[in-house]
Amino acid sequence: MSEMSNNRSVRQMGSKLPLVSVIIPAFNAARFLPRALVSVAGQSYPAARIETIVIDDGSTDNTLAIAQALEGQVSGVKVFSQPNQGVAAARNLAIAVSSGELIAFLDADDRWLPDKIAAQVGIYQADPDVGLIHCGFDFVDQHGTALPDWPRRSRLDQGDVLLEFLCDFFLITSAVMVPRKVLEKVGGFDETLKVGEDNELFLRIVSAYLVGCAPQILLERTVRPDSLSREDFDLDARVDLATIERYLVQHPDFARQHRERIDDHLATYLYGFGYRLLDEGQVSQARTMLRRSLSRRWSVPATRSLLRSYLPEALARSGRAALR
To answer: N or C: which end of the chain has fewer CB within 10 A?
Structure first.
């Protein structure tokens, strides 16, 4: 079904439209939260069929005050707060207090384009058994300026995307809408994870359901200089690796069937991670990742980097890193 016909059918169905719950976790997001909420208020989907749940996750700035002020000004906005427990717990709380048939996630520093909800609801109405619906997106900086040279691009995969997703966690949380019945089946976000909780949940979904996609650009994903520290970036990579490897252990037949493709992906991923760790002076950890890469697939770059880790300058850099 085309975007135009999807949106037309949405407008025609009126009161029969499913209620959509927009889930916004917010931690120290005072600068960006109003923009996110304005993008929800500007949706072409009927406002009466949208509720917006904002969870302040123990912010230390005035995020909660701003959210509460907007609650009184923007129809359908409900604000809750909790002590800081992380984004997974915030999203789970929002899901628990929401009422919608469809759950749409939006990070506080991102912005939707006006037809985002309508396009995804149209896909859901055409195929109510779909497990997840995503959409195209662009990257922008914190001022809203497009980043056309940003190395990552949106992917428009649909149907059975399990192998592709396992080899490239391409889903952006703010681009995703999930039927409540799917979350009730597979469970919510893993609250033990500080990062990577979205990929872990989406992997559970795509392993059990087909995926729909609205191919048009419907999200502006904000890239902020302070969004992830180096330590968080490294942790994110480790969590994603653990998520992949745990899935492969739990599904040995799938792992055997797609071994060559999976080995190629993990070898490349582990090499990139090891290379970065080596440049950061974390020599011991770099060697571990590089050896794991070579155990999946031999390559000249990984071998060269492993040998470089034994050179004096690499060891000296490791000592300097330990003193930081």
So the answer is: C
Residue 114: pLDDT above 80?
Answer: yes
Structure tokens, 128: 């109510």
The structure tokens 């950061």 sit at 280
Q: Which long-range contacts (CB under 8 A, 24 or more apart) does 46-51 make?
A: 46/14, 46/17, 47/75, 47/76, 48/76, 49/17, 49/18, 49/19, 49/20, 50/19, 50/20, 50/22, 50/76, 50/117, 51/19, 51/20, 51/21, 51/22, 51/76, 51/78, 51/98, 51/99, 51/100
Phi, psi dihedrals of residue 113, rounded to the nearest 5°? -85, 160
| Amino acid identity for residue 14 in this structure | G
84 is written with which tokens?
């800081």
The CATH class given to the 3-223 domain equals alpha beta
Non-local (6+) Cβ contacts of 225 within 8 A are 142
Looking at the whole model, is its pTM more than 0.85? yes
Q: Supply the pLDDT for residue 228.
A: 53
The answer to whether the beta carbons of residues 43 and 112 sit under 8 Å apart is yes
Quote the CA–CA distance of 130 and 151 in Å, as a whole number. Answer: 29
Residue 4 contacts residue 34 (beta carbons within 8 Å): no
- Residues recorded for the chain: 324
